[in-house]
Amino acid sequence: MKNILFTLFVCLIFTGIFAQNPVRIGIDGLSHDHIHGLLRDIAGRKDIQLAGIAESDGELVERLHKQYGFDKSKVFATLEEMVEKTHPQGVVAFNSIFAHLHTVEVCAPRGIHVMVEKPLAVSSKHAEKMAKLARENGIFLLTNYETSWYPTNYRAYELAVVQNKIGTINKILVNDGHKGPAEIGCSKEFLAWLTDPVLNGGGAVVDFGCYGANLLTWLMKNEKPVSVTAVLQTIKPDVYPKVDDQAAIILKYPHLQAVLQGSWNWPVDRKDMEIYGKDGYVKALNSSDLEFRADRNSPIERFSVTDFPVAASDAFNYFAQVISGKIELKPTDLASLENNLIVVEILDAARKSAKSGKEMKLK
What is the pLDDT of residue 342? Predict the structure, then answer.
């Protein structure tokens, strides 16, 4: 009996240790300003562990090292060297959107999972190469959006799509952006590629148009729009001479129209969504405040949303749980490869429409 109890005790200990083993994560690039949240928290996390960092800009490495105190012995000049010497299970990309392809080209053949910051790629050509590599090598390829972590978006989905509380949906509006990356004080390294038409793929149309395309594709369960029509402008050519800073994208579906507005000219920060049905509407005003009206005879309801249906605390915890098999990544999920291939296709069509002045049909 004592031997049995001892064996069970040992099994429980090892099971506990195994369950708590953090997922080893590598970082490709430090030039994306979204990196700050990860660098600030990673040393104290139990779910992930920093394996290594790939960054060739020594000045940037030194500045961030002084700010966050990460181990500089874990920093390598190239991604190839970093993954060969540190063997991460997953890599998160905080480089230019153009560089996402290289991240996958290095990681996929080595069986290393990848999560990029939004959007997936600068073009469908890049996206398709990335998808092919991910599928051939059996890795997860995720895309992270801030709005994937807004409880209000999930409640709006529940009310409008799952419960059909507002009747048949016919109009969706998504507004995203702020005063502009230069105006809000983004770093020089971030601005260098964010305002470059090659390295970012465009300006506000990519930076903020992708949010709406991602949410809309999710709401539509990966149904593609019939057509895309877009108008792109540069309101501040003295600040953004190479790219657009104002984007309006109209997506047409058989029984629904959506308007995505991405801008570097809003007077205030915006990430909101409005869903209109035959009878009523629901508005996700921000990450926590929601407005709902079932029909014209019902009162307007305004309430805060705090419950979150995804069993993860943030994007990196989500990535770790997907890698370890604790969370199943579905094709219709916001981070999924299937969703984000459509997002890039929509952005491609938007840029072509704006350039030609014509409505672009999707295949």
Answer: 98
Q: Same structural domain for residues 142 and 167?
A: no
Query: In the block, which residue shows the tokens 């579906």?
Result: 253
**Which structural domain range is residue 50 located in?**
2-146
Express each pLDDT in 145-178 by its tens digit.
999 999 999 999 999 999 999 999 999 999 999 9
Domain boundary (87, 120, 146) is at 146
Q: What is the mean pLDDT of residues 324-337?
A: 97
| 3 pLDDT more than 70 | no
Are 210 and 107 in a shared domain? no
Considering the domain architecture, whether residues 98 and 223 belong to the same structural domain is answered as no
Q: What is the pLDDT of residues 181-216, one digit of tens each?
A: 999 999 999 999 999 999 999 999 999 999 999 999
* Tens digit of each residue's pLDDT (9 = 90 or more) over 207-263: 999 999 999 999 999 999 999 999 999 999 999 999 999 999 999 999 999 999 999
Report whether 237 contacts 182 (CB < 8 A).
no
Residue 119 lies in a domain: yes
The domain spanning residue 9 has which CATH number?
3.40.50.720
- Whether 271 and 180 have beta carbons less than 8 Å apart is answered as no
116 backbone dihedrals φ, ψ, rounded to 5° = -105, 155
Same domain, 85 and 187: no
Decide: 150 and 144 in contact? Cβ < 8 Å: no
Q: Residue 27 and residue 6: Cα distance in Å, rounded? A: 41
Number of structural domains in the chain: 2
Q: Indicate the residue among 128, 146, 164 that finishes a domain.
A: 146
